[in-house]
Sequence to fold (217 residues):
Amino acid sequence: MHRTPFKLLISLAMLLFATQTAWSAEEDIFIRTAADGSVELSNVPVDKSFSLFLSSPVPGKPGRSDLPANVGAVQQIDRSTLMARVEIFREFVAEAARRTNVDARLLHAVIAVESGYNPKIVSAKGAIGMMQLMPETLLRYKIDDATDPQKNILGGASYLRDLLKLFNNDVSLALAAYNAGENAVIRHGSRIPPYRETAAYVPKVLAVYQKLGNLLI
Fold:
């Protein structure tokens, strides 16, 4: 469950529909407006104050065609390309998943969004490699070569494991903390911080996770 400004929420909704991913029924997204005016999203409507916002497409039918296919500046990874990259790094991710007890599909989703599986990429902020680890994170998990895919993935998986523990296995909050830092999430009352990048990041990762479906990876 997480909150995000309503205008940005609409953009994210269009982005999710534009992926034309075949969601399962339990991946419907529900919405309600909190007393402070913030918007709350959940895939589990805990009470009647939630109403359906995004419904799963009916299997065999195309996605919404009345929404633009190029919403936002985020480059979508098509399923065939995604699966080709999954295969290349399957063993490294599987090893990290076993050692940290983090879902391998979630690790693949983070890698896809963070770096597009490029082990040499360096962001403008100094994040390095497959899982875009910052220098302080590299030190924290004793990663001596951030461009080594195996080491980078294990470092990112270890960080994500600790974030999931910190936020009681709330995947949305763990992903928000991975993007913005755990202190930012804590400062905002254990909610997704009101940062445009972070509010967009969480559903992007979850959308790729949905693309991976129930694949044994």
